[in-house]
Amino acid sequence: MAVLRLAVVGDPHGAWDERDAGLLQRLAPDALLVVGDLSDGQQRVPSALRRLPLPVACILGNHDAGRDASGRTLQRQLQCLGELHCGWGLRQLRPPGLAVVGARPGTAGGGFHLSKAVRAVFGPLSLEESAQRITAAAAAAEPALPLVLLAHCGPAGLGSAASDPCGRDWKHPACDWGDQDLALAVRRIQALRPLPLVVFGHMHHQLRRGQGQRRSLCVDRAGTVYLNAASVPRHGLDLAGRQLRHFSWVELDVSDPWRARVLLASQRWYGLDGQLLYEERLHQAQLAGPLPC
Ligand SMILES: [Fe+2]
Fold first, then answer.
1. Distance 241 CA to ligand 1 centre (A)
2. Each residue's pLDDT expressed in tens, for the chain with a length of 293 residues
3. Cβ atoms within 10 A of the Cβ of 27, count?
4. Residue 121 to residue 189: CA distance in whole angstroms
5. Does 12 sit behind a cis peptide bond, omega within 30 degrees of 0 on the bond before it?
6. Helices and strands per DSSP (H, E), number in the chain
7. Which has the closest alpha carbon to 57: 101, 11, 12?
8. For residue 213, what is the DSSP state?
9. How far is the CA of 143 from the centre of ligand 1 (A)?
10. Whole-angstrom Cα distance, residue 94 to residue 91?
11. How far is the CA of 154 from the centre of ligand 1 (A)?
């Protein structure tokens, strides 16, 4: 069986340093996906991602514009990332053989809203135009490559409870805070080709006001796995004083790239030496049964 191992960084908010880069070299995933909110518009994290010696795809989040409505800070982040950024576009990683399509950059969720910074950089855009851009990027992906969607906020439709993958937890009443353009694009892409995985962040795992932890994975009827990677802060210490670094982790069976499927998805906390110290397994595919006669 051919397996692709993907590490996902969820909402670093500045928590990325040289030890993360060293840890990543030990873990040696086939690719790294970064869901945005790298920092508040500083250039240190995007520059560090650019130097990584492995295939990387990234999308920027709402915090990456800083507090700069002019769009200049957001533009500088885009320049820093260069080809790593795949917002509203297609990034084909070869190796390892993976098509990554980016959703709408700079989103803060809540259905469809363009910030002043996003409008300044990308111009005004309708929900329909945004969905079309995402769908067109997926339609241009090579059929021989498995397809993954990379978004800052996940799609609408994953539930309206505070603890759902994109549920609003900071204000009553709880509601679905997912993006509607992405939901529309997902439906259209699923009509074109199989879509094994959508990864995103923005909606932090730790819920506000003592409401516990967010459900960070769900699967739809088409078999698409939706994974929220936003464990914030992603740097921590355990009770033994050991430093922890969070990655979401996905293993894809790509034996048939057109019908790639998620074998395993988990939230992982590693020690700096690469030891897997804690893991929350979210999804584990059933082993294939006997072939139908
Ligand atoms: Fe965010």
1. 29
2. 899 999 999 999 999 999 999 999 999 999 999 999 999 999 999 999 999 999 999 999 999 999 999 999 999 999 999 999 999 999 999 999 999 999 999 999 999 999 999 999 999 999 999 999 999 999 999 999 999 999 999 999 999 999 999 999 999 999 999 999 999 999 999 999 999 999 999 999 999 988 899 999 999 999 999 999 999 999 999 999 999 999 999 999 999 999 999 999 999 999 999 999 999 999 988 654 444 44
3. 18
4. 26
5. no
6. 6, 13
7. 101
8. B
9. 31
10. 10
11. 11
Structure tokens at 144: 């021989």
Full-model pTM = 0.96
Cα–Cα separations (whole angstroms), residue 72 to 34, 83, 118, 292: 22, 18, 10, 57
Token representation of residue 108: 């803060």
Neighbours of ion ligand 1 (CB under 5 A): 37, 61-62, 202
β-bridge mates for residue 197, sequence order: 148, 225
- In the reported structure, the alpha carbon of residue 126 is separated from the centroid of ligand 1 by a whole-number distance in angstroms of 21
Q: How far is the CA of 169 from the centre of ligand 1 (A)?
A: 14
Which residue from 29, 16, 52, 22 is spatially nearest to 272, judged by alpha carbons? 22
Kindly list the distances between the CA atom of residue 71 and the CA atoms of 118, 121, 244, in Å, as whole numbers in the listed order.
7, 6, 34
292 CA from centroid of ligand 1 (Å): 45
Terminal-to-terminal C-alpha distance of the chain: 21
Q: Strands 56-58 and 31-34, how do they pair? A: parallel
> Residue 147: beta bridge partners?
99
Number of neighbouring beta carbons within 10 Å of residue 61: 28
* Identity of the amino acid at 36: G
- Structural domains for the chain: 3-284 (3.60.21.10)
- Hey, what are 112's tokens? 């469809």
C-alpha of residue 204 to centroid of ligand 1, in Å? 9
Residue 257 alpha carbon to ligand 1 centre in Å? 31
